[in-house]
Every structure is written in structure tokens, then in C-alpha cells.
Amino acid sequence: MAFIFKFPDVGEGIHEGRVVDWLVVEGAVVAEDEPLLTVETDKAVVELPSPRAGTVLRLHVPADAPIEVGDALVTIGEPGEEASGGAAGGPRPKLVEIPPPPPQAPVTAGGGRPLATPRTRAMARRLGVDLAVLRGTGAGGRITDEDVERAAAAPAAGAARGESSDEVTIPPRGPVARTAAPRPRNVSTTEAGEVERLPLTHLRKVIAGAMRASKEISAHVTHVEEADVTELVAHYRAVKAEVEARGGRFTLLPFFVKALVAALKDHPIFNASVDEAAGELVLKRFYNIGIAVDTPEGLIVPVVKAADRKTMLELAEEIGDLAGRARERRLGLDEIRGGTCTITNIGPLGGVFATPIINQPELAIVGLHKIQDRPVVVEGEIVVRKMMYLSVSFDHRWIDGAQGARFMTDLVGLVAKPGRLMARL
User: Fold this and answer.
1) Distance (Å, whole) CA 160 – CA 158
2) pLDDT of 382
3) Do residues 361 and 273 lie in contact, with contact meaning Cβ atoms separated by under 8 Å?
4) How many CB atoms are closer than 10 A to CB 419?
5) Phi, psi dihedrals of residue 385, rounded to the nearest 5°
């Protein structure tokens, strides 16, 4: 019997989202737990699996359409079964017809996009493969990772033999070539001059709502301290050289994560939240550190879980992985939830210091700012040292200014003296 799979309640207060891409077409046979579509919810893009095996009878919404919890997504039935209004137990919903692909043509989802998962699309971008000219070998004509890998290798082999291919093209390095016509610009002329209107993305709307809510909820105060990180940078460079000699990758950020965790243990109110309904301060005895990541579509904060129990090398690897997948919108919901305190690393982008906004329901966010050579007085002499500013924005409703000053003094002390930090690990 056919049934309609509806947008499920994924928890965490999420009640709406957007269909990013369909991974199946009408008429495709799917297995239980096979991905059906990708949905953007909150700050993550996730795949929704099929709750049962069967045949895709109808897709109820097109790609890029907004959805709410409980909305019909897809009707799945037995092979040969036709969709009917009774499947949903009520009036038949408005359905969007997606015609089957023409013979020998690349399969596309709603909106003319080839069927592929976000992971596969990201791989194609990295390898410079145009998905629009590929023929997928996956279920329902979906393009797989293997299809992309074969496409990336095929032109080189063909070029060596002087052959050409009309199915696979590799554009030159740089932006990936697109075969689809560019979206027309929404440009108009006003009395003051020409203007262009760009639609707000779902992610940007989510960020806007979160920022506004945080400013309305918390009484923001920012405390700034200056740190001499000359010794830290020297220690980091020695570790980095050793790690990279073994083929790894290492950054400064794990040092700051470890320093923050140590400071949070001494000042637990900065690793807390408040249950106002119960009238209780909730001190977290675990340390899940959010790392703000700048992506082309907006700020995303993946969370490093149990940061206190991980080595510097483990932190470096995990932060790199989370940041990379954040930029490709491949994070799971659990990877952006459960943070206890957040770090935003603004330094590489420039600027002396900033006043970050608290990531609710946390009570504090630490800002790391630009490291630069500056003249300072050390033991009565002017010398050049590597200096930086660190900031903490905290909720002044629950944290006093004196607590903020003591917290930052201790954090700066750990950053300035890596030996002291190593002794705490």
C-alpha cells in the first residue's frame, strides 16, 4: 500500500527547512534507508533516508521549495502501484510532476540539476567535473562518487590517445564551468540609480534570526586583553614542522582550544547555560567547543565534542574536517549542536579586535584576533614581540565584569606561556 513520507520532526526546535535536491526520480525503486533527498534545516544540509523499500510514485515538492514539519515529501508504494488520494488519508495534495529523463540524457532533478548527493557535488567541484554531462549509474540515474572519479580520469586518458569525448568535460582550473544558463539578474532602475535584488537564502535567514534573538536575550559585554604570544608561536612552529614532516597538518587553533578548556575548568560559569524557568544555572562538566567557520553561504559553527579528552593532533584533524565539511554543507545536525562555549578566529581576516555575538544558549564566546609584530617594553627595554588581542563576549545578566576580567587574565596567561598550558594537559 502506498504511503506518503512527510518531513519528520528532527527535534532541536526545527520546524521548517528547504528541499535542496532530490536524489531519486519518480518511478525509481529505492531500498530502505536509501537517501531520498537533501534538506537544509537550520545550519545543516542533511539527507533524508527512505523509511521503507518500494517505488517512488510521486515527488510532492520541487527542489528549492520551503517545507515545514508534517509536509508531504514523497509517495512510496509497491512496484507497479499507482498513487491515490487515499494514501494520505485525506484530500490528495498538490503534486509536482517531474517527468522521466529522455533516453541517453543525463538524469536531472527538479530545476534541471543532475541527481547527485552534496558529497558527490563537492567531489565534482574539487576535481573540476561538470555533472551536467555525466550519466549516473546509481539508483534512479543518480551520479555517484565513482562516476565522478571515472570522469576525472577519462579525459586525461583520452587526450593521451588524441581522442575526444562528448560525455565528459574537464574545465580549466578555476570556477567550475556550468552548462546551464546563468540565473537572470533581478535588476531595476530607481530614481536614485540601478539596484539588484538577491533572494535571501534559508541559511542567511536562520543566521539573521539567531543574531537578533541573541542580542535581544543576552546583555552583551565584551572584555579585551592583550597577549604576548611570541613563545606560543615558536612552540607552534616547532610542532608544525614535526607534524608536517610526517604528512600531517597542524594549526595554532588547537592550542587556543586547549587553553580555553583549561580556563573553563577554572571558571565554570563560562561553560554554562541558564534554565530561567527553573531558576537554575546549569554548569556543564563537559567541554564541547564550537568553532565558527566562515563559509560562502554564511557563518556555521560546528562543535568539537569532548575537546578536553583529545590531543592537539586529534583536535587539528577534527577541526580541519569539520571546517571543510561546513564549507561544503555536509555537516550532520549533531555536529552543530551541543556546544558549551564558542571560539571565533577572526585574526586571519584582519582587524585589531571585534565584539562577537554569543551563540545561544551559551553564555560566552571567545574571539581570537590578528597576531602581529609590535614594539613592547620587556624588562625596561623596547623589543619586538608577537602580540594579539583576545576578547570574550559574555552575558552580563549572569556573569559579572570582575569574573570576565579574571577569566581573561587566566586565559591570556595560558596562551602566553605554552609551558604552563602543557602542564595542564
Assistant:
1) 5
2) 96
3) yes
4) 8
5) -130, 160
The predicted-structure confidence for 167-206, as pLDDT tens digits, reads as follows 333 233 333 333 444 556 788 888 999 999 988 888 888 8
Burial of 232 (0-12, 13-18, 19+ CB in 10 A): buried
pLDDT at 173: 33
Catalytic, 396? Answer: yes
User: What one-character DSSP code corresponds to residue 108?
Assistant: B
Looking at residue 118, its pLDDT comes to 58
Give DSSP secondary structure letters for 330-360.
---GGGSS--SEEEEE-GGG--S---PPP-T
| CB contact at 8 A, 57 and 1 | no
Residue type, 237: R
How far, in Å, CA of 183 to CA of 114, rounded?
A: 17
Amino acid at 232: L
Helix, strand, coil % in the chain, rounded to nearest 5: 30, 25, 40
Q: Residues of the chain whose pLDDT is less than 70?
A: 10-14, 42-43, 79-113, 117-119, 122, 126, 139-140, 155-184
Looking at 2.60.40.1760, 2.40.50.100, 3.40.50.150, 1.10.1790.10, the CATH number of the domain 3-100 comes to: 2.40.50.100
Average pLDDT, the chain: 82
Grid coordinates representing 78 are 509497491
Active-site residue, from 220, 223, 267, 396: 396
* Alpha carbon distance 234, 28 (integer Å): 58
Task: Report the alpha-carbon distance of residue 161 to residue 157 in Å, rounded.
Answer: 7
pLDDT of residue 412: 97
DSSP strand E in 250-340: where?
Answer: 272-275, 280-283, 289-291, 293-295, 298-300, 303-304
In degrees, rounded to 5, the angle at the alpha carbon of residue 276 between the alpha carbons of residues 270 and 279 is: 95
Q: What CATH number is given for 215-424 in this structure?
A: 3.30.559.10
> What's the pLDDT score for residue 260?
98
